Amino acid sequence: MTAESTVPSPAGQSRDLGSSPVAVLPQRDGTGSPRLPSGRPAPRPGSPLPLLVVDGTAAVPGTLVLTGAPHQPLLTGVLVAASLLLRPRPRPGRRPSGALDDLPALCGRITVVWLVLAALVAAYAPAHALSARTLVAGVLLHSVTGCAGRAAVHRRHRTALRNHPRAALVVGPAATAQRVASALLRHPRCGVHPVGIVTGDPGGTAGLPVLSTGEEVRRAVVQNGVRDVLVVNASVLPSVPPAPEPSVDPSLEPSVRSQQAALLRALAESGCAVWELDAGTPAHAPAHPAGDRIAAFPCRRLEPAARRPGGAGKRVLDVTVSGLLLLLLSPLLLACAAVLRVVGGPGVLFRQERVGQGGRPFTLLKFRTHRPADEHESATRWSVADEHRMPWFCRFLRRTSLDELLQLWNVFRGDMSLVGPRPERPYFVARFSQAYPGYAARHRMPAGITGLAQINGLRGDTSIEDRARFDNAYIDDWSLWRDVCILLRTAAALVRPTGS
pTM, whole model, 2 decimals? Predict the structure, then answer.
């Protein structure tokens, strides 16, 4: 957890961070990103309806083995419903797979469905319990029918992609982007047809048209109906998260990186699917677990912020837990405020601007444990964890993290979440976003009181690069249960406090 902050730099590194604030995200003006067509629906994978129909109808032939069983229509309905509920679902953002890829999951789920059906029949009609031969025959018939149907759907989808590939732009260093585009053109089965290269260094390139201005990109999107954007990384960057503003070439100047991020955001908002493609991963290196491949290049879909993980379930957990804790801890909060008033004088609450989801600022609340000389010091100095002039009770609040409890009100209001990347001040967010690839992408989810980085010891004066990597890993692999686990580990860590 961060503090009110006053030490020169994180992780003991001496760094000149400048003195003037910089915008967290590139400005949405005519110079930052081109005017691109809007209102187009976002591209989606193939409709799930064909596979849904196939999975449902595949259960019907299997019911032939149930001839003579009591309530056969009811059993057929149960079998179809269970098959649909347990059908294999594609991972969000993945490109089309084949029937063989689905085979293990499909057969495993069909086996479970039939075992459940056999248990129900044995429980409610013991005299008509399914024999082992009947069970095996039903599983085989159901599996063969389901696999054949899925194979037909996948074959039809691949044929459609080959005959009508989706127009794409390749964004990245000129030489690497041309190499990737040439590979895609040699493999039309991937369903992507590059129509242009977007780069700021067009010199020495040959092949596809090179687009170096916003107007050229807009014209290419309109004339070719571009629906895919492939962002090429020339080196292995496993910590880069899926976001509409992915990491760009770290060798570029900060202003160029900001322009490229603004362009990618504009392309995503215009309805294009943005994919991060790693052209520098060695052949023996594993693909990212949440990723896929296009023409054998590791890639992953960069989801717009509106479709980021979390949503209603996370918000319900936040409101329920924060509201309950505020109610239960109100006597403790009042006691801390009273003691702090006596020890430290007036001004118990500490308010500070922090950056939340999407780069939006909000006012964070804490108990005041330090009094900066002025607002500039509060906004631009790093840590006060080692300040010995702090009153004893303030040091106690910081060591036990009790000064952070008021952020439960921020969670209840919706400014923050219980679990998420720790929020930082705009001054540091701007600087860290320029210095550390992937740092700005932490703002894809609401900021949190605790997070994966904090339970792994990344608190206070620790590596910013490591924090960004852990925060992005949390967002990439988010689940509601993982939030619960992080909260439990945070509660356990409070018994051995080390300060914030």
Answer: 0.48
